[in-house]
Amino acid sequence: MFINIQPIGKIHTPYKEKFAIPRQPGLAKSAQGKIIFLEEFNYPNYLRGIEQFSHLWLLFHFHQTADKGHSPLVRPPRLGGNQKLGVFATRSTFRPNGIGMSVVEFVAVCYRDKQLTLTVKGVDLLDGTPIVDIKPYIPYADSIPLASAGMAQNSPAMMAVNFTEEAHRQLNKLEPRYPALGSLIREVLSQDPRPAYHKDSHSDKTYGMTLFDLNIQWQVINQQNVVLTIQII
Ligand code: SAM
């Protein structure tokens, strides 16, 4: 039996590559996403009443890794990449059907120039991700405060983030064009996006990530992330 699933829209986010995207929504609260609805769903009626919900579930397709298939066992980064768990015991992107789910904060609905958009915050989705469904987050059913979650019980440890004077100057120049850029860089880097096998090294390697059309370079100095440069690509 096959099920046909049709995307309802596409989300635009600051994350142009997988590297450095936080592993779950809400870890970078400033990461804003705008869903552009496809023609068939481009009617405000589809979203009528949605503003009464502060948070929404986005269901989406892990489109960038979909062609890599899946296997029954995966290595969660949370376990340092050394241990294997069943794919259904993880939130891995490499899974049958490639369906992802993220709770995000509602920001606004807009219908302008005959285009319906929904803006949300706290996304962990790559730019261009196909959205297949949207549902309201319902606290009495979706929040289970005493739930246990093994390796993922607590949010990941955070690292301090500092800016060199040069990076600070660049940030001040860019922030009028990229609102909340400083917060976004801080939130993303506080998650320590380095691959697990780099985390114990004391090298002075310079790392780079892309947010919007900006290349951001940083080094890890005394276990703190130091942003060196922020440049338009
Ligand atoms: N919150 C979702 C879930 O639990 O289903 C996603 C969790 S998954 C571990 C988060 C990672 O998915 C991000 O760090 C990013 O690397 C990756 N990702 C986000 N959007 C993607 C896409 N469209 N295709 C492939 N990978 C994606």
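^ S-adenosylmethionine complex. Residues 18, 21-25, 62-65, 91, 93, 100-102, 124-126, 129 surround S-adenosylmethionine (CB under 6 Å). The mean pLDDT is 95.
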